[in-house]
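Predict the 3D structure for this chain.
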Amino acid sequence: MLQPISCNGYSIYFNEDGYEKLRQFIQEKNHSKVFILVDENTHIHCLPRFMGNMAEDFTAEIIEIEAGEVYKNIETCSQVWQVLSEMGADRKSLLINLGGGVVTDLGGFVASTFMRGIDFVNIPTSLLAMVDASVGGKTGVDLGPLKNQVGVINVPETLLVDTAFLNTLPPEQMRSGLAEMLKHGLIYDKNYWKEFQNLSALDLNDLDTLIRDSIIIKNNIVMEDPREAGLRKTLNFGHTLGHAIESYFLQNPEKPTLLHGEAIAIGMILETFLSREIEQFPGEKLEQVSSVILSYFPKVTIEENDIGSIISYLKYDKKNTHGNINFVLLRDIGTPSIDVRANNELITRSFTYYKEQESN
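Done. Predicted structure below.
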């Protein structure tokens, strides 16, 4: 059995143990009403399993939103607030967010702001949400193409990670979550990074352990720096350029829509290149990082005339201060460096480096 993880103000429980704790919590709190937020995919693929693991007399109102990052906005929040009001939600109600990062981010924000805050529980159903959105209390929505521009930091009452939900995911969604796990190794733990050199040798039990270890890494960082004054910024490795690429591709009808992890994977290669140029990150390790990431993530075509537009998105990054674009780079694997600046010429060269890499 995977042992629970204690976070700032709540605990993360796993699999069967998690359902038992959730049943206890709901019984003790005696909420006036329970609501479950799902999207159209988790409604079909995850809700039946969740309800089957709850007590027979457990009842809840289901609220469904449309699936996809494009619906992670204030308009969707307004609709959910409206439905909560119409269904008689009050300050003693509970919102259970059953879904990937869009559902947990948006649902956490809806709960944190409805009647100035009601209880919420997160049940992440994608690998990305389990290892990333599940920890740290960041809630929020996008503002047009700008990622997570509006939100609050507020933790759930409890969090349940049921790895059986991963069986419902298509391969590209599994890969998307893998990007954040790779990132946790690169910024924090070289031994954890080594585990990913040969993932084909691992079985499902190994994956459960890797997921728990990834959550522990993120939790350790968040516990030490809950308000993102220093260390927590390291979690943004790969995200400065990754988010800009994700936003640009989202806005450009001629481009394929990239999943979060697919964009972050590119961002990590680009920012590891910057690390070599600025922080003297070892060249052979840059080659290794690129090779490992490209063994999981197919190359994405980024044309030369895309680069200027992608760079223009950097000004919206939330780590920026006083008009400066701040990067998280690496001095070595497991040794990050925060608030580093890079000029446009170097950033452009990082795209050239990515373009020259061979897909594995």
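Residues 5-169 form a domain with the Rossmann fold fold (CATH 3.40.50.1970).
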